[in-house]
Amino acid sequence: MQQDMIVVIDLGSENTTRIARDIRALGVYSEIHPHDLTAEQLAALPNVRGFVFAKGPNRAYEGQIVEPSAAMTDSGLPAMVTEGPVPTLDELKPFIFDTCKASPNWNMENFIADQVELIRRQVGDRKVLLALSGGVDSSVVAAMLIRAIGKQLTCVHVNHGLLRKGEPEQVVNVFGKELGANLVYVDATDRFLDKLAGVADPEQKRKIIGAEFIRVFEEEARKLDGIAFLGQGTIYPDIIESGTKTVKCVKSHHNVGGLPEDLQFELVEPLKMLFKDEVRACGVALGLPEAMVYRQPFPGPGLGVRCLGAITRDRLEALRESDAILREEFDKAGLRGKVWQYFTAIPDIRSVGVRDGKRAFEWPCIIRAVNTVDAMTASVERLDWELMERITARITAEVPGINRVLVDITPKPTGTIEWE
Ligand code: XMP
Q: Is the same domain home to 134 and 278?
């Protein structure tokens, strides 16, 4: 294994994530672990050079004040104790480099080399299945698994018909052609749209899309022989809380929930120790296109939550086209990567307009562009008026069925980012 490690031990601090990130910022790999690491667990962690015991206000577990386990204190490894303000980089540096003698060898190249080795050890000559949505996490997992085990991986890309323009094609091109993956591409558009026909309730739409997704994926999985593992895009924020014992609200580990009992796979989760920005850097290092790695968030139910009310094919098409125009114009204006998320939505109403001198009874298209840090609250991007006029002219001219363009200037709260 390539990288040295400093282990941050959660003794009730609220800053464990921050400390681990600061250590990584100094070029040394760091993980967060609970106070009761056993000797066996500790021995399984490669190249541990020292501990940071992070004490804090949540220092109780089942009514007891927690202390570092004997395995740690008996290990002879150096430990730094913190409480209160987060240690500064200047406080961390002498401990990490002089006391622990850790090398600053945490970088993507070493991380990838280590993961490739770990994946090969875990998987051996068996086979792995991956649901490849085309989102950042599943794409990076796919690229990592292809690097590690090549054709022992089968990717299944389910196109539910609610993807953005060009997305399924990009998945097929990048993974099926350029990276030469075993890719099963399933165009399930008709299935999804038939199930969704006439359903206007947002929650019900989401449930149908989620359940149908599992069903299609499961059908494909059953067609394949001898799959032992399921690849998963779990990332570090998903599991940090379940890795600690002092936090009350343990978040459930997200997975492809709902797979039937008899389809039990062991998991391969090569990104589970990465933060989101590190996942992107890993994707770039694995050779994925920047547009795929730096794409903005896109909800699982896709355009289904932006084609408001009961989805119809014509309105869905208008939505996909208007979204593509919006993205193209934002790109040209240099706004990609500057505005956190932007998209169009089309409500299920029509208004009277005029086109070529004739009455046009058509849909409006809503533009939403927001900035946020954690998606819990959001502010609205103040868009340039000339840009808005250009986008309006293009959408009303190029997208059949749209005669008006509206801009949503509602922050979250009271509006959520998505409309449904
Ligand atoms: P809201 O609409 O709740 O959205 O303000 C917050 C962020 O989450 C995204 N979003 C989803 N992401 N599955 C996802 O993976 C979903 O079902 C989903 N719904 C909303 C949304 O795009 C925004 O970035």
A: yes
pLDDT in tens, 242-271: 556 665 433 344 345 567 777 789 999 999
Which atom of ligand 1 approaches the CA of 300 most closely?
13
Average pLDDT score, the chain = 94
Instruction: Give the pLDDT confidence score for residue 238 in this predicted structure.
Output: 83
How far does CA 411 lie from the centroid of its chain?
A: 23
The answer to whether residue 17 sits within a structural domain is yes
Question: 75: which 2 tokens?
Answer: 């290990």
- Ligand 1 geometric centre to CA of 10 (Å): 30
| Across 23-35, average pLDDT | 95
> How many Å lie between the centroid of ligand 1 and the Cα of residue 244?
26
Q: Summarize pLDDT for 117-157 with one digit per residue, the tens.
A: 999 999 999 999 999 999 999 999 999 999 999 999 999 99
Ligand 1 site residues, Cβ closer than 6 angstroms: 297, 299-301, 341, 375, 412, 416-418
Task: Kindly report the pTM of this predicted structure.
Answer: 0.91
Instruction: Identify the residue whose C-alpha is closest to ligand 1 atom 6.
Output: 375
Domain carrying residue 50: 5-99
Q: Say what the pLDDT of residue 201 is.
A: 97
| Nearest CA, atom 7, ligand 1 | 375
Residues 274 and 206 in one domain: yes
> What's the total number of domains in the chain?
3
State the alpha helices, DSSP H only, in 8-161. 16-25, 39-44, 70-73, 89-93, 108-123, 136-149
**CATH number, residue 47:** 3.40.50.880
Domain-embedded: residue 136: yes
Write the residue with the smallest CA distance to atom 15 of ligand 1: 299
| Atom of ligand 1 lying closest to residue 416 CA | 5
| Residues contacting 321, CB < 8 A, separation 6+ | 165, 398, 399
Residue 140 contacts residue 279 (beta carbons within 8 Å): yes
pLDDT for 262 equals: 75
Instruction: Please give the number of the atom of ligand 1 that sits closest to the Cα of 341.
Output: 24
Do 161 and 125 have their domain in common? Answer: yes
Span 184-192, mean pLDDT?
A: 98
Closest ligand 1 atom, residue 415 Cα: 5
Give distance in angstroms: CA of 383 to centre of ligand 1: 22
Which pLDDT does position 247 carry in this prediction?
A: 52
Both 11 and 149 in a single domain?
Answer: no
Positive or negative, the Cα torsion across 121, 124, 126, 128? positive
Atom of ligand 1 nearest to the CA of 412: 5
Structure tokens at 33: 């672990």
Position 57 pLDDT exceeds 50: yes
Q: Given 293, 323, 351, which residue is the final one in a domain? A: 293
**Per the domain annotation, does 259 fall within a domain?**
yes
